[in-house]
Design goal:
- It is a single chain.
- The protein is mainly beta.
- It is 4% helix and 69% strand.
- The protein has a 22-stranded antiparallel beta barrel. It has a two-stranded antiparallel ribbon with strand order 8-9.
- The protein starts with a helix and ends with a strand.
- The model has no long low-confidence stretch (mean pLDDT 85).
Length: 437
């Protein structure tokens, strides 16, 4: 069957399901239209291409239409996430979450069993730098909508353990939309599918001790991305890992060199990995011990030691102080100050209008390297926020960016206007309009 015919039939089936389901199911979702603009570098001559900051500029635009649908059948949902942008179709993700109550299997009872099948379709995109020296995203010919991935997530509780398993069938050659792709084409003949799985289990005792374990077979916990959508978990042939960790083990108070450490907690983790790039039989093993405690009521300290691979390595110490609304944190390595941070957050009483102001600063042993401040306001259908940041560049500390957001909620519509300015002027502006139903 031709691929275009298959995609057309599939789209028709989805449309029939959605339209037909409205007669006996609850339909909700969001339809939106996004318009994004950015400044094209201004040049003063036709021969020398220089970016000269100017008040009036030429803009280039990107327009995207997105649709999110949720059809509730009671025992199951149908979720559809579809986007079309200026270049054409972007992605289509279909999920059908199903929730079950207690499910007895032989002598084992599964509590709150959840099954979430997914199917991903997308057009291959790649990241490039255009003639204006600006980052851009372009379609890779022949620009067909391709089947990229199928996922099934199983989640349940059993004997106090929370268990989750993710099974995946994935095109391992599908281009990453955030990086360049060397081949000029990506047709269906270039696809290569593989199977992988991720399993995790966790348990927490009433005394605070937590146990967690995870296993990956032909898979990685890193995310898989298509244009405009991503999720944790990807198929990587011949990649294996196993992790086991315990945290929250309470120890007695410790006195060290006249200093009392209270509520001391011990945690440890073990990791075994074997990647596809390693030779047969070559593996790596990692063991880490973490300790945390309180110096006094408002101060805490934590540190880690890596025991394997040998020789052991000291992971440093972090000391934090919380004195509302302030918070300070210092990171030390071999008892030398390596980094520090400071944060402040407070609410604003402006009568009918509510607001919040926060600031965060970071630095190294030589001084401040970053500073950001944010102000947010809200009243009725209106909300606004602005954020200004300063950073160190080329050993100079100065202005980095300023971003502002205005949001109007006129039920059922929501309109948002955003603008971001950098050191040399406007970098990005966007208007987003959506209807929630």
């Amino acid at each position: 069957m031709p691929r275009r015919a298959f995609c057309g039939i599939w789209s028709l089936i989805v449309l029939v399901i959605v339209v037909g389901s409205t007669a006996f199911a609850q339909l909700s979702g969001r339809f939106g239209l996004d318009i994004v603009a950015r400044r094209i570098p201004t040049t003063l001559t036709g021969e020398i291409k220089l970016d000269t900051p100017s008040e009036f500029v030429m803009l280039e635009f990107a327009i995207a239409s997105n649709l999110i649908l949720d059809v509730n059948f009671g025992f199951a949902h149908l979720n559809i996430d579809a986007v079309v942008n200026t270049a054409g179709p972007e992605h289509l993700v279909i999920k059908t979450p199903m929730d079950f109550g207690c499910l007895p299997i032989y002598e084992i009872t599964l509590d709150k069993l959840s099954i979430v099948p997914e199917m991903w379709f997308a057009v291959p995109f790649e990241a490039v730098t255009d003639v204006n020296n600006l980052p851009n995203s372009v379609i890779i010919p022949p620009a067909d909508v391709l089947f990229v991935k199928a996922r099934v997530t199983f989640s349940t509780s059993m004997a106090g353990f929370n268990i989750k398993h993710l099974a995946m069938l994935e095109d391992i050659n599908f281009p990453n939309p955030g990086s360049s792709f060397k081949p000029l084409y990506y047709p269906v003949q270039s696809q290569s599918f593989a199977i992988g799985g991720l399993t995790s289990a966790s348990w927490r005792a009433q005394v605070g001790v937590s146990v967690n374990a995870s296993l990956g077979i032909n898979a990685s916990s890193s995310g898989k991305s298509i244009k405009g959508y991503s999720a944790t978990g990807s198929v990587v042939p011949d990649n294996y890992f196993a992790r086991f960790g315990i945290s929250g083990i309470k120890l007695a108070d410790i006195n060290l060199y006249g200093t009392s450490f209270q509520s001391v907690m011990l945690g440890t983790s073990f990791t075994f990995t074997k990647t596809a790039t390693q030779t047969a039989g070559t593996t790596s093993f990692n063991t880490t011990i973490n300790l945390s405690g309180k110096l006094w009521d408002k101060a805490s300290i934590s540190g880690s030691v890596t025991l394997a691979p040998f020789p052991p390595k000291f992971g440093g110490v972090t000391i934090s102080f919380s004195m509302e609304p302030f918070r300070f944190a210092f990171a030390l390595d071999t008892m030398e100050l390596k980094s520090m941070s400071f944060s402040f957050s407070t609410g604003l009483n402006l009568g009918a209008m509510t607001g919040r102001f926060s600031t965060t600063a970071s630095g190294l042993e030589r001084g401040m390297t970053g500073l950001s401040m944010r102000l947010s306001l809200s009243q009725g259908i209106f909300s606004a926020g602005t954020n200004v940041s300063f950073a160190e560049r080329a050993e100079k500390f100065g202005f980095a960016s300023l971003g502002s957001t205005l949001t109007f909620r006129l039920s059922p519509a929501v309109v948002t206007v955003r603008a971001t300015f950098g050191r040399y002027g406007l970098t990005r502006a966007a208007v987003t309009a959506g209807v929630v139903f």
